[in-house]
Structure formats: structure tokens, C-alpha cells
Amino acid sequence: MTNQQKDNLFVLVKSLSKSEKRQFKLYVGRLGGNTDSKFLALFNLLDKMNKYDEKVVLESGIVKKAQLSNLKAHLYKQILISLRLNPLHQNVRVQVREQLDFATILYHKGLYKQSLKILDKAKSMAIENEEKNIAYEIVELEKVIESQYITRSMSNRADELIEQAKSLSIQNTITSKLSNLSLQLYGLMLKTGYVKNDKEYKQITKYFYDRMPDFKHEDLGFREKLWLYKSYVWYSFLVQDFLSGYKYASKWINMFYKTEGMISLNPVFFLKGNHYLLESLFYLKYHSKFKKTLEKLENIIYSSNLLPNEDNVSVLSFMYVYNNKLNLHFLEGSFKEGLPLVDEILKGIKLYNDRIDEHHIMVFYYKIACMYFGAGDCKKCIEYLDKIIENKSLQMREDLMGFSRILSLVAHYEIGLDYHLEVQLKSTYKFLLKMNDLY
Question: The whole model's pTM is what?
């Protein structure tokens, strides 16, 4: 039996909205021969299941075991094609990619002028919307066509394409190096958390500046600045320079507010930037600014049309809004008033179970435990800390696990559950020693 969490097809089917399911069936039925197809029957069966059970699929008689893998792969592909045709998923990035595909087909048919015409429009759209990787692909195809078919459309056409390719290549290289650096810093944060001593501070600082690419700030576009600010935010967090984190998170978000069209094109970066801005304000204990920023973010999420209606946006909105609602109560010391959030958070975790990684769920559990501890309910605090401490399948931040163990010790002591305290103390001591946190 395949686990529900690990069966990609089942998770994809269950992620579809009612309108997406309806469109898929319309898409399948566009040709009469597909209405009774095996993959549609499999789709209907999976849609009715609460959890994936291969035995039930085979007993249905839809498909034999030897053919199941191929049928599932075919169904998976057909669902993705249907989703791509859905207007809700038609953003600029998809549209430019589609135009590039069309131009490639025309090129292979020898219709060079038609291909170049589509490529020129697609390139303008890509550059205008900061899609420079796709723009570079378009220029490269233009170069191929121009080298085979002399259009004479422009005397300096070759020089123009060479210059465009060179410029885009430089910008894409800078973006790649900055995105690599940002990802490496994020990995360090997940593994070890914030720096704990001067030695680690010097190591991280050297690591950061050794990998920072050379560039002229005036040559950077929206996308390059986005990755630059993101890298500085992660570095600032790692070394616990939250004022610097606030500075670069503010630059990050202000770019979006100056160019609101980028919010719908890059909603994930917009939401993440707001989250890091709020996190900086939280650690700076800037209560009034924190509250105002959170209210502004909630208004954009729930009362504006700036963000696209996408599952990914819904998940991140839930995570960032509720994480920061908890933080607001921590800033205000209103622990009992924050307890009603717990049920809302647990419902959200259940709703988005297939889309939230385990690390972020553990962060929620830790904050919930802190809320209960602050409200004086140490038993509930211990209940949520145990979910973290007993999680053996997760390589989470060492500092999160360490703090969970320490808070658990304090909570046990507070309510008199100290008969195993010596064992817990030794266990926690060994863990902190292992993570080199006793300084």
C-alpha cells in the first residue's frame, strides 16, 4: 500500500478545486472516445478516496497491476495539461513560454518570418516582466534563425542580438550567483540557526562576502535587486543584525509597492519579503510598526486583487499571517488572548497538510507551546513540545530542538513533574553539548 503523502498522483487529484475538476472532465470529453477512458475512471476513483489504497484501485477492475504505473503517469500528465489550459494559471511566465514553444514549431516548419515575429513580441513581454532567463532563450533562438535565414530586416541585426545576449547573460549570471548565495544561507539557517559566538560570526561573514558577486548597483534590474536584498536579509538574520535585516527587507518590499504589477507575477517573493520584514520588526521589538505592517499585509491578502488566486499563495498567506499573529501576542504579552489562534492554526495545518513542510509545522508547535507556557498551562505546553522532541524523522534547526528541550525542562519543573527531571537534564545536556551550544 502506498502512503497517501507519498503518492504524487493522489495528492495532485486531492489538490484540485471543484472548478479544476470540472474543467478536467470537460477537457477529457473534448473527444468522444475519452469519456469512458481508463484514466478518467481512475481519476473518478481517486477523487472519491479519502486515502490512497492501491489494493482498492486494483480490485476496481479499471487496470491490471502491470499497467497501473503507466496509467497513473498518463493521468498525471493529462491533469497538468488541463491545469495549464485553465485561465487561473495563465500568468505572464506561462504565456511567454507558450509563445516560445509556438515560435519553435514555426521555425521547424521553415516559417522563419512568422517565428521571428512571435519571438520579438515574446521577448519584449519577457524583458518588461523581468523574465530574463526566458528572454535569453528567445534571443538564442533568434540568433539561430538569423544565421540560417537572412531577413535583411535590420542592417545591424546581428550586432543587436549579440549585445542583447551578452547583457542578458551577465544579468542572469549575477542573479544565479545571488540566488545560490541566498539558498546556501537559508540552508545554514535551517541547520544551525543564528550564530552563537564570535567564531561563528566571523565564519558566516567571510562565507557571505567571499561568495558575493561583483556588480554595479545601477546595472541591476528588479530581479537582481530582489536576490541581492534576499541574500542580505538572510545574512543579517544569521548574524542577528536585525536592524540590517529590517533595512533590506524594507528595500525588498518597497520595490514591489513601486511596481505593483510584480506582486501578481512574483507573489511568493512578495509574501516572503513581508514575512522577513515582520520578523525583523519582531526581534527589534518595534510593536507599533509590526502591528501596522501586519494589518497592511492582511488587507492585501484578504481585501485586494493584487495577489493571484493560487494554492501556493493561500498556503504561504496562512503560514505568514498566523506566525506573525502569534508573534504579535508575544510582543504584547497577551498569551491567554492568543490561545484562540491555536484551533485556527491546527485547522490550517490539517487543510494544507500536503503543502506545508514538517519544519514549518514544528515551528508552529513551538510557538503554540510558548503561548500555552505564557498563559500558565504547562501541560499543554509540554504536549506540543513533545511533538517536536519526539520527531525523529526531521532534520530541523538545531536551535529549535535545543530550545524545545530547555522549555520542556522548565515546564516540567513548574508543574512539579520532576520525578524524571534528572534524566531529562542529562539528555538535554548531551544534546546541547552535541550541538556545541554550551558556551
Answer: 0.82
